[in-house]
Input
Amino acid sequence: MKQVWLNISPVFRRFLMSYLIVLMIPLIAGYVSYRTSIDVAEQSSLKTSIMTLQQSKDLMERRLAEVQGFTKQLAINQDLARLMTSHSDEQNYDVYGLWKMMRDIASYSQTNDFLSNFYIYLRNSHLVLTPSTVYYRPELFYESNHYEGMTFETWKKNFLEKSNLSMVVPQHDYVTKTHQQTVVTFVQALPLNSFDTPLASVVVLIDTKKMSTYLSGITNQYGGWAFVRNHDGETVLSEGITGNDIAKIRNIPSGKPGDISRAADDMLLISIRDELSGWVYTAGVPKSALMINANRIKNITGILTAISLISGLVIGLVLAYRSSAPINNLINSLKKQLGLELGTGIQDYDFIAGNISSLIASNRQLVQDLHNQVPLIRDAFIKRLLVGEFYNGEELAAASAQAGVSIKGEAGYAGLAKINTYGGSDSRESLAESNVARLIVRQSLMEAEPDMLVTDWGQDKLAFLLLRTSKLAPDEALVIQRLQDLAGTLFSHYHMPVQFGMGRPFEALADVGRSFGEAAEALDYAAFTDEGGVIRYEDSSRDASLFYYPIETETRLLNTIKSGDGREAMRILEHIAVRNFQERELSREMTEQLIGELKGTMLKLLDQKAGDDPEFTENLQCRIAQIQPFEGIDRLLGQMGEMIGLYCSMIEEKRNALHHQTVQQVKDYLESAYGDADLTLYHIAKQVGRPEKYVSTVFKESEGEHWFDYLERLRIDKASELLLNRALKIDDIAERVGYNSAHSFRRAFKRVRGISPSMFREAAELGDAR
Output
């Protein structure tokens, strides 16, 4: 036996021993409970009785809180507020408002049986409004619905005209045309802050039989009784005992801490006080019932102990095997990967711990490597922003979040800083000095403007970008002065001559590329004239012998047109015209070359297969060929604008066609898969081969509603057809149309149709009968 035990897996032995030790705890507890079964049973029964009474109290208070919440909902109901404050007489009632209010409040009685009988008194029109009818005089209402022995004047004074704030009236006999019942009345004046004369009163009549069900836990379990008294000592409710018998009881606990239970003859009296309302819940439990439970526990303790021991051993073996098997498989797999023998004497947990520690160390190294890449990602993002590679706000936001760069505004300044001492040699010492110089200048720039974005731009240059959230005119001189001071400081402290090229300020991020290009031109001008400090683009001369059309601008123009943004494309085109025809005086040859470059840009759109329509391509080629160099800048912009408009319209038509096709595919798929309760946006996107975000956005834009709203309507339409078949149960229909439960189906059906499925079926059958 010992040899067999040793051959078992050590992990299995450890788990089994742990479960056996845990198993001994309930066995010892069972033995102790057997020896003290009577005392334990009495205490347990007492606690159970208190708990049952506490639960009854909580349920009662919760249901009354729902009633109070109902009155609060009425207090904020706009329709009721309009009825309370409107001026009406017997000849001019707001009939539609009254009908709408009746319809709205009728649903409450279906969700809460405490609200099955209530009415609202409107003081301004003397109307009594119930879920089923309207009484145009309170006297008419009280003739058929009144308290036994209470006069109309007393009822009107205490219930309708008095400013009652959540008043609960004890049980009282209430008579209607059809029957008589005992009710507890809840009265709430409206508005809730009515301290003098209310505008309306809500009166809820709660059948004591319904309330007594929450006290039946004591009577059903022990054959005792229970009653509730308010803070004035009046009996609000009772179960299993009459008011005369309650008056005979003495030595009732107060329900305060330390005075919850007392013995009285052959009964155990228990009281619980609600500190908020002042109500005292009292129950009487026969002592004989407590002793029966004690004897029962005494008899079954031995049986349960034996069963627990046997079942615990079986369960312990099963759990030990299930818990140890995955660990053993993991250990054997690791040993095979490492080339170790399965029977080696390595401690199992130490072996796993060592490998996990190695894995964690590798993961930390990976995290550190990724963290080290953040500066590179940041520099790449700033470079893309400077050359204008972002064509929409979503792409910019995603890239800035990935790089960890906060975009604080749309306006700002772009510029280049050139360190003139370095960059003339490629030796190791020169490169090291250049790196140090760039680091000093970068740090100085960021100290001068903490919000400035700085990145390397070659060996001897630094590009910088400063964003602002407001207009720039008052700020431009200050920024230039800080750069001038910084240039002087760098030269005086480090003998490092630095030139700053500044483009014109921009008011939108789309103009960053333009401003940065101007900064580069200004810096080139400074190198040619050997000027120092800060050189603004406005102060530099532009060479009229060359036209302005850098490759970055052409790339932005192409990408903007291909994205369908004609307005932005025209803005770029107008910028090109301003730079070449207002800021320069181009020669005839340069003008011809510029127009040729622009025509070539338009032809590139066709070469890149952006338009697949041969007729459209031929038409565009003819328009491009018809452009003449000397027809005037306005004529040129007009012709280019027409072509850009045609191209963007074609892109928009293709996009709309793709959207329509996607929406139709989604509809077809929903039509075939609406019965799948696990249907999600992921499954739909996978079916149509599009991203989830794209599918959701396109469907909403095309149909004017979310896809899940469309799916719900589709399911309810299918369910409506199935409800016409009386042989099908509502639960089966709910499952067929894709709902996990009949409850969720009923809620969805009522939300779409306005009525429950059963009422819909009955209405359909009634229509067929007619």
The CA atoms of residues 164 and 189 lie 5 Å apart. The chain has 28 helices and 17 strands.
